Amino acid sequence: MRPSRYRRSHTIRRRNSGVSLVEYVLGLAILAIVLVGVGLFFLSQPRLLDPVFQFRAVSLAETLSEQVLAVKYDEKNKPEKQSRCSVNCTKAKKFGVDGSESQLSDFNDVDDFQLWCNNGESGATGAIDGEELATQLNLPETQLYRRFTVETCVAVNDDDPANIFKQVEIKVSIDKGSTLSFVLHRYNIR
User: Fold this and answer.
1) Which of 187, 186, 179 is nearest to 58 (CA)?
2) pTM
3) How far apart are the first and last CA of the chain?
């Protein structure tokens, strides 16, 4: 006996209708594995600083380094007399912010840039906000530097008594994430 037409068409429709529960669960499991794999791939990639932000960070650090070069090496230097302080002019206990300097316009020697260091040594108070620093540097459109923080740490390198210099490390961070670091050596010259 042959099945009727009705039964054949009904059987065919039933096979094509929807997805079984096993197929659905299997599909979700495969999708989850793929999503976890993609997520782990992107998390393992190093975060790169956007070129626009790199340019702004470099311009901020460059302008700040010009300020470091514009002030005296030490308070005891006398540029008008073309004389410099003696080899031992900067001692560890006297090194750092003098107390009266609170902003860039007050800085009169390299030691004062220690104010914006996060190490808490020699009068350091911590990193400065990028927008505030841009204002003090008289940069145009200071709001462009809102997401930056700038840290400047000063250390005396006296390993070679004939070549003592102050090392100024400038770190520009964006949103407490990527950081660009610059190191500037300032020598005791006339």
Assistant:
1) 179
2) 0.66
3) 115
